[in-house]
Amino acid sequence: MRSARPSLRPTKKHFPIPSVAGMNAPLVATDLVQTYGEGPTATHALAGVSLTVAPGESLAIMGPSGSGKTTLLHCLAGVIRPTSGSVTWQGSDLAALSDRRRTALRRSDFGFVFQSGQLLPELPAVENAALPLMLAGTSRAEATRAAAAWLGHLGLAGMENRRPGELSGGQAQRVAIARALAGAPGVVFADEPTGALDQATGAEVLSVLTSATRSTGAALVVVTHDAGVARHCSRTVTMRDGRVTGEYVAEAAR
Ligand SMILES: Nc1ncnc2c1ncn2[C@@H]1O[C@H](COP(=O)(O)OP(=O)(O)OP(=O)(O)O)[C@@H](O)[C@H]1O
Ligand SMILES: [Mg+2]
What we know:
The structure is a single chain. The protein is globular and about 55 Å long. By secondary structure, it is of the alpha/beta class. It contains 6 helices and 10 strands, in the order βββαββαβαααβαβββ. The strands form 2 sheets. A 6-stranded mixed β-sheet has the order 6-7-8-3-9-10, sandwiched between helices. The protein has a 4-stranded antiparallel β-sheet with strand order 2-1-4-5, with helices on one face.
């Protein structure tokens, strides 16, 4: 049986939720084109996408396999440099930054949740969740404290020292969410975070992800095949063949 959903607004006394610095600027993508290969065999993974992610909003990206969702996410997050077009975050053009500076910015300002299998199997949950913070230069003690606090927020108190193999799929994804949020990112990027879970567990994890992200003021960009995701997000964008084909704003958009 699954445990009850944790309260995501715990008292500050127990688990202070870090506030997000500098969250007034949106993430802006303009005319993104990403082409793989050349000539007649070239794949136009993105064929001109313009998109703005407002501070604190939750944006779902949906579309068939191969429509360019992951490519878009990677461009927005500065993981890949688009063939043309630009992404600006906090006023900085990501492509204009050096690789080193862009990597540093990714570590300090962005959090990532992947489908599955991205936790290090030999590390306990708390160390997995603390790792990006330590890579960004936070002391081990401080990183561990923040990671443990987030594990507590997400209903994993008492499981801090379990390794990923000792957790259920849903619990492991909560560790991944704690890892993404521990560094107080401005934007959390999630690529099919529930893709490896059964529907009920996936819905629960998505609910945890959106609530936890919202509680920090971070924006969320989530790629999903699950139509139910729209219930959890303030906006949904659909893609096909590298283009945005539709946009839906939730009635109760926050
Ligand atoms: N590194 C690459 N080299 C060549 N082609 C690529 C590369 N990455 C992606 N593509 C191609 O770009 C297109 C978009 O891929 P992308 O991974 O963004 O799709 P997706 O919408 O995330 O699909 P899925 O739902 O299957 O994850 C596809 O045709 C894919 O084959
Ligand atoms: Mg993909």
